[in-house]
Amino acid sequence: MGAKMKNAPVYFTVAQVQFNAVLNLESYLPAIQDRMRAERFPDYKREVLQRIALPISGGDAEQVAAPPILSQSRFTFGDIDGTSGFVLDNNSLSFQTTDYETFETFSKKLLDGLSILHDALHLDFTERVGLRYLDAVLPKAEKESLSDYLAPEVLGLSQKLGGQLLHSVSETVSFFNGGQLVSRVIIQNGRVGLPPELAAGAPKVNSRFTQPEGPHAILDTDAYCEQREGFDLSKLETRLSVLHDEILKSFNVTVTPHATKTWN
Fold first, then answer.
1. Confidence tier at 1 by pLDDT (50, 70, 90)
2. How far, in Å, CA of 112 to CA of 129, rounded?
3. pTM value surpassing 0.85
4. φ, ψ at 119 (rounded to 5°)
5. Could you tell me if 10 and 4 are in contact, meaning their C-beta atoms sit under 8 angstroms apart?
6. Could you give the CA distance from residue 21 to residue 29 in angstroms, rounded to a whole number?
7. Which of 5, 8, 119, 250 has the most other CB atoms within 10 Å of its CB?
8. DSSP 203-237
9. Long-range CB contacts (< 8 A, 24+ apart) of 143-146?
10. How far apart are alpha carbons 77 and 109 in whole angstroms?
11. What is the dihedral sign for C-alpha 41, 43, 46, 51?
């Protein structure tokens, strides 16, 4: 994460910026799609999502009408290989990839996408910036175990109890200057996958992560900042760098020197 590792464990990365809602977004799509295609994201799709609008106030349950189901469109712009792409709705843009190179390359793609949007929409403000990494820890040799790769603090009782392990989860939530960090480690048997909230519309994951089956760990690290401020690409670049630095700190204290040596 930072400098590229030869055998980097990162298998999915996503960053999102939320901005002021643009209710007539679809009228700008031809111009946006043309620019995205020029940036080598020609795979355009329109999806309609269904969500339930729950009532805010309480009341007599027998008198409350069934909550309405609302439809919302979102638009994806993917690359030819199906490993990277943008997800756009009326108040956010995400960039996600399963072919991660370096943070500098990744963040530049997101900022380029935001620049395209701003040229078309003249965005007024942003109010949330988030960055999330998923890393797969897969022991390389039969004699190795997850304890060779992970700090004792995140192993829980996964290495000490008998029987067949279903899962073990460690989660630490912390505040830092201007944001929040959520560091999760999920240990389980089987194959590496994506959390349900990320699976829909995600790029295809490299087979070197999904084919092995057995004990593995997923490092799920999510950093975000919620603050409304005028749209400014240079400020967004700085915020993304701060979020990345916090994620990198979490990564470095979660894995062992042996893990770092193996991935480098």
1. very low
2. 15
3. yes
4. -60, -35
5. no
6. 15
7. 250
8. PPPPHHHHS--SSEEEEEEEEEEEEEEE--HHHHH
9. 145/215, 146/187, 146/215, 146/216, 146/217
10. 12
11. negative
